[in-house]
C-alpha cells in the first residue's frame, strides 16, 4: 500500500478532531488529515445510539464556544441533535473534506532520522510531522468478567453497540449497571419491555435534571442577540463548575449537593424499602453524579425489579444474583468503557513503550496534551486534561487552542522536533496527584473510574477549568525540548 505524507495527522473525528480541524482552518493551517475508524463523523455521539442517549450537560455549554448553536430544541440536546450539530460544524468550517472515514490506526512510531511519525492504518500508511490523538476517553466497551456470560442464550448487547433491529416490546430485559448510560437507557426500556430487571452494584447519586424545551422565543433571542446565549452559557458554566467544590477542594462541600440528591430520591420514590436500596453509602462526586428526573420514577414502575444482590453468574436463560435466577430474554450491558482506548496500546514512544504502558505505571501526561517520550505529538483529553466538574467540551476547546498555537509556532519557526521535558511532566504529575487527595473524587468512599487500581487520580484535572484554561492559553514552548532543523543540522532551544 502507498504511503501518504501529511504535516498533521489527527486521529478521531469526534468533538476533539472536528473542533481541532475547524480551529486549524481558522488559523490558516489547511494541510492536515483526520482519520476516523468508524464510517461517520461524531465520535462518541455517532456510536452511542442507545435509546435515551443525550447530553447530561446543558447543550449551550456542551458545544463549541466558537460555534454556538441557537437552535437547540431542548436544554439537553439529544444524541441525534448533537450528532447533527457536529456534522454541521464539520461542514461549515470546511473540516469534512479532511476526514478519511473507516480508517483505523494500527501502529505508530516516531522516526528520529526523519523526525516524522510513521503510521500504519488498515487503509494504507502515513508519515506525519505531528500526530494528534483525539480519540476521547470512552472509546471501547467494557465487557464485565462475569462467569458464564458467553453461555447466555438470549440477545446480549452492550449499550455502545445497540441493536436497533431488536424489538424489546413484550420482552424480559435485564440491565447490568446503573451509571450515567444506564440511567438514560432504563426509563426508555421500561416503557416498551414487559419486565425489566436492573442489576445494581452501587447506587448512583441522582440530582434533578430539569430538562425542558427551549421555546421559539428563546431561540429567536439567541439568534438575534448571541450575547444572550453567551450569558446562559456563562451561568451554566458557573453552576457546573461548582461541583469541583466537593470534588477536589474539600469533602465538606458535599452536603448541599447530597441534600439535592436526597431530595430527588424522597420526592420520586415513596417506597421506603426501595428508597433505602437506592441510597448511596458514599459521598456525592466520588462517582459522577447523574442528572435525571426519569430514572427513579422508572424504577418505581411495577414492571421493574431492582436487584442489589451481587451477580453470581450468567446462565443460558438469565442472571443468577444472590443465588436466585432472574430469567431474561435480552441482557443489556450498561457497564461503561475500558480505562484506556485501543489507540494507547499501538502508539510507541522513543523507548518502544506505548502510551498505555506508561499510563499503567501511573496516570501521567503534561496538561493532558503532551507526553514525554512522544515527540511531535499532542493528545486531546489525555490524563489530567479531563474534568470531573465541567463540560468536556470546555476542556477540549482549551486543548485545541493550545495545539493550534503550538502548530502555528512550529510551522512559523521551522521546528522539526519538540518534546515535553520529562522533568516538566514529572513536576506537573506530582502536582496533580498532590492536589487530588482533598475531595470526594479520591476520599469519597467508592470505587470508580475516577481512580486507578492503586487509588490514584486516574486523570482528572483537580482544579478549576478556568485555571486549566489559563495554563493552556499559549503553547509554553520553553517547557519543551525543541529542535529546529532536520537531523544533522540541528539547532536546539526553545521554540519561540
Ligand atoms: P460507568 O459510569 O462506568 O458505569 C458502569 C456501570 O456498570 C456502573 O454502575 C458499574 O457498577 C456497573 N458495572 C460494571 N461492571 C460490573 C459488573 N461486573 N457487575 C455489575 N455491575 C457492573 O459507565 P457509563 O454509565 O457508560 O458512563 C461512563 C461515562 O460516560 C459517564 O461517566 C459519562 O462521563 C459518560 N456519559 C455521558 C453521558 C452524557 O450524557 N453526556 C451519558 C452517558 C455516559 P459500579 O458503580 O459498582 O462500578
Automatic annotation (TrEMBL):
UniProt cross-references to Pfam families, sorted A to Z: Pyr_redox_3 (PF13738)
InterPro entries in alphabetical order: FAD-bind_Monooxygenase_sf, FAD/NAD-bd_sf
Annotated PANTHER family: FAD_NAD(P)-BINDING DOMAIN-CONTAINING PROTEIN-RELATED, L-ORNITHINE N(5)-MONOOXYGENASE-RELATED
Name used for this protein in its record: NAD(P)/FAD-dependent oxidoreductase
Amino acid at each position: 500500500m502507498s504511503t501518504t505524507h501529511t504535516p498533521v495527522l489527527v486521529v478521531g473525528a469526534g468533538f476533539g478532531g472536528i473542533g481541532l480541524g475547524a480551529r486549524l482552518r481558522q488559523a490558516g493551517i489547511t494541510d492536515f488529515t483526520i482519520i476516523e475508524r468508524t464510517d461517520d463523523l461524531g465520535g462518541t455521539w455517532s456510536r452511542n445510539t442507545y435509546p435515551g442517549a443525550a447530553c447530561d450537560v446543558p447543550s449551550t455549554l456542551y458545544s463549541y464556544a466558537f460555534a454556538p448553536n441557537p437552535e437547540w430544541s431542548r436544554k439537553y440536546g439529544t444524541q441525534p441533535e448533537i450528532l447533527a450539530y457536529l456534522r454541521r460544524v464539520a461542514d461549515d468550517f470546511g473540516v469534512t473534506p479532511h476526514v478519511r472515514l473507516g480508517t483505523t490506526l494500527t501502529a505508530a512510531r516516531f522516526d528520529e532520522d526523519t523526525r516524522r511519525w510513521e503510521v500504519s492504518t488498515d487503509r494504507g500508511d502515513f508519515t506525519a510531522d505531528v500526530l494528534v490523538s483525539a480519540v476521547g476517553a470512552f472509546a471501547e466497551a467494557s465487557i464485565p468478567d462475569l462467569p458464564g456470560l458467553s453461555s447466555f442464550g438470549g440477545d446480549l448487547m452492550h449499550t455502545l453497540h445497540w441493536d436497533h433491529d431488536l424489538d424489546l416490546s413484550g420482552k424480559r430485559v435485564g440491565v447490568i449497571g446503573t451509571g450515567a448510560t444506564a440511567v438514560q437507557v432504563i426509563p426508555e426500556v421500561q416503557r416498551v419491555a414487559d419486565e425489566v430487571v436492573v442489576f445494581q452494584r452501587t447506587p448512583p447519586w441522582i440530582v434533578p435534571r430539569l430538562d425542558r424545551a427551549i421555546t421559539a422565543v428563546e431561540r429567536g433571542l439567541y439568534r438575534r442577540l448571541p450575547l444572550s446565549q453567551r450569558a446562559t452559557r456563562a451561568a451554566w458554566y458557573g453552576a457546573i463548575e461548582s461541583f469541583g467544590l466537593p470534588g477536589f477542594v474539600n469533602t465538606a462541600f458535599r452536603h448541599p449537593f447530597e441534600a439535592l440528591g436526597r431530595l430527588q430520591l424522597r420526592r420520586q420514590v415513596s417506597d421506603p424499602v426501595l428508597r433505602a436500596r437506592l441510597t448511596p453509602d458514599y459521598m456525592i462526586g466520588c462517582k459522577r453524579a447523574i442528572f435525571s428526573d426519569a430514572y427513579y420514577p422508572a424504577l418505581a414502575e411495577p414492571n421493574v425489579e431492582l436487584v442489589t444482590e451481587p451477580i453470581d453468574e450468567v446462565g443460558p436463560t438469565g442472571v443468577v444474583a444472590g443465588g436466585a435466577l432472574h430469567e431474561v430474554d435480552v441482557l443489556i450491558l450498561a457497564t461503561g468503557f475500558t480505562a484506556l482506548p485501543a489507540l494507547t496500546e499501538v502508539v510507541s514512544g522513543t523507548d518502544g513503550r506505548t502510551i498505555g504502558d506508561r499510563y499503567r505505571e501511573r496516570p501521567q501526561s503534561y496538561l493532558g496534551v503532551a507526553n514525554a517520550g512522544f515527540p511531535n505529538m499532542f493528545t486531546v483529553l489525555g490524563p489530567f486534561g479531563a474534568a470531573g466538574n465541567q463540560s468536556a467540551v470546555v476542556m477540549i476547546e482549551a486543548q485545541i487552542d493550545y495545539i493550534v498555537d503550538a502548530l502555528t509556532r512550529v510551522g512559523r519557526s521551522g521546528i522539526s522536533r519538540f518534546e515535553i521535558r520529562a522533568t516538566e511532566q514529572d513536576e506537573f504529575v506530582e502536582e496533580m496527584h498532590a492536589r487530588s487527595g482533598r475531595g470526594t473524587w479520591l476520599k469519597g468512599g467508592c470505587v470508580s473510574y475516577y481512580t486507578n487500581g492503586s487509588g490514584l487520580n486516574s486523570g482528572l484535572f483537580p482544579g478549576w477549568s478556568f485555571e486549566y484554561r489559563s495554563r493552556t492559553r499559549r503553547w509554553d514552548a520553553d517547557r519543551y525540548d525543541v529542535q529546529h532543523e532536520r537531523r544533522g543540522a540541528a539547532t536546539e532551544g526553545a521554540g519561540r
